[in-house]
């Protein structure tokens, strides 16, 4: 495994800010990357969601292995956790999300009524790691907006609430929470493009990716991962002046091909019975 050197200094501040906003939120919409549903999750979000509605959306399923994504959804269903997946963002999917959120909202209403509180639209917020698709989702949910409902007291000035259905309001600011980058989590986030390419060795990352793809039988080759990378560079004509393969550039292109789906539909994390 390769090492990811990344210590985001702003993490604590960002977390505290989100924790304050979260107090006014009823439903947390947590986005995770379908290719790495564990590594792109964050235990802080689960903690913040305690006592609130919680919907997990697996994004980028078009890049992931459909069969594995279905297994993840099934596993979470067994655990009674709301999890759905969205194909890119289209109107059908937006409807699917709103329907799910309204189901959760009904439970929130019920709780509020029991406490003798008045009905009001249920407030949702989108959280997730960098690059997972938060802004894309907010944009497509906000397209359905009926009205910008203005600032609510107790929430940082400047936060915009958008009405997305009769029952639901969405805070149109996403919250980014960095997970810990230990070991495999950092590796998976790096491979899928959630971390800047400058904080790890691209060549090591590509070699590791090839090893994984080989083990999971997404590619079949009898070559060692480094040899496979060299062959890839050769085929693509990525050569240095002397005629040798430029491994650095080949590695970058290999990662790019993986991230854009050119290598096929691939899931790096597969569910295990004890997940
Ligand atoms: N293939 C694919 N790409 C997606 C999908 N959803 C979002 N993207 C792409 O993923 C990239 C990141 O999306 P954003 O919506 O900007 O992600 P974000 O979570 O707001 O990122 P940060 O603001 O950096 O934290 C963009 O290039 C999107 O076009 C999807 O379902 N499938
Ligand atoms: Mg964004």
Entry summary:
By secondary structure, this protein is of the alpha/beta class. The chain has helices at 11-22, 43-48, 66-78, 91-114, 134-142, 183-192, 202-215, 225-236, 247-259, and strands at residues 27-33, 53-59, 82-85, 122-128, 161-163, 168-176. Bound molecules: guanosine-5'-triphosphate and magnesium ion (MG).
3D structure, described in words:
With 275 residues, the chain is α/β, with parallel strands linked by helices. The protein folds into two domains: 11-176, P-loop containing nucleotide triphosphate hydrolases (Rossmann fold); 201-259, no CATH class. Helices cover 41% and strands 13% of the residues. The protein contains nine helices and six strands; from the N terminus they run αβαβαβαβαββαααα. The protein has a six-stranded mixed β-sheet with strand order 3-2-1-4-6-5, sandwiched between helices. The structure holds guanosine-5'-triphosphate and magnesium ion (MG).
Question: Which properties best describe this structure?
Answer:
2 domains, alpha/beta, binds magnesium ion, 41% helix, 9 helices, Rossmann fold, 6 strands, six-stranded mixed beta sheet, 275 residues, binds guanosine-5'-triphosphate, single chain
- Which radius of gyration do the C-alpha atoms yield? 21 Å
CATH topology of the largest domain: Rossmann fold
CATH architecture grouping of the largest domain: 3-Layer(aba) Sandwich
Q: Name the helicity range.
A: 40-55%
Mean pLDDT: 89
Count of DSSP strands: 6
Distance between the first and last residues' Cα: 21 Å
Give the low-pLDDT segments.
none
């Amino acid at each position: 495994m390769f090492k990811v050197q990344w210590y985001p200094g702003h993490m604590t501040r960002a977390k505290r800010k989100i924790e304050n906003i979260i107090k006014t939120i009823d439903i947390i919409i947590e986005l995770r990357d379908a290719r790495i549903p564990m590594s792109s999750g964050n235990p802080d979000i689960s903690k913040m969601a305690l006592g609130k509605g919680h919907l997990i959306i697996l994004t980028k399923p078009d890049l992931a292995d459909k069969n594995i994504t279905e297994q993840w959804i099934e596993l979470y269903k067994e655990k009674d956790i709301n999890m759905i997946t969205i194909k890119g963002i289209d109107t059908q999917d937006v409807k699917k999300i709103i329907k799910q959120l309204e189901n959760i909202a009904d439970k929130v209403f019920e709780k509020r009524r029991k406490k003798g509180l008045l009905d009001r639209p249920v407030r949702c917020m989108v959280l997730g790691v960098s690059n997972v698709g938060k802004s894309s989702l907010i944009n497509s949910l906000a397209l359905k907006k009926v009205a910008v409902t203005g600032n609510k007291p107790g929430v940082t000035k400047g936060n915009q609430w958008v009405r997305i259905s009769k029952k639901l309001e969405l805070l149109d600011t996403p919250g980014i929470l960095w997970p810990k980058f230990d070991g495999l989590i950092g590796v998976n986030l790096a491979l899928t493009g959630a971390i800047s390419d400058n904080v790890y060795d691209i060549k090591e990352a590509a070699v590791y990716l090839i090893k994984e793809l080989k083990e999971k039988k997404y590619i079949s080759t009898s070559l060692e991962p480094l040899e496979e990378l060299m062959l890839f560079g050769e085929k693509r004509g990525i050569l240095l002046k002397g005629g040798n393969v430029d491994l650095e550039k080949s590695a970058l292109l290999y990662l790019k091909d993986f991230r854009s789906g050119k290598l096929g539909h691939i899931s790096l994390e597969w569910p295990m019975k004890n997940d």
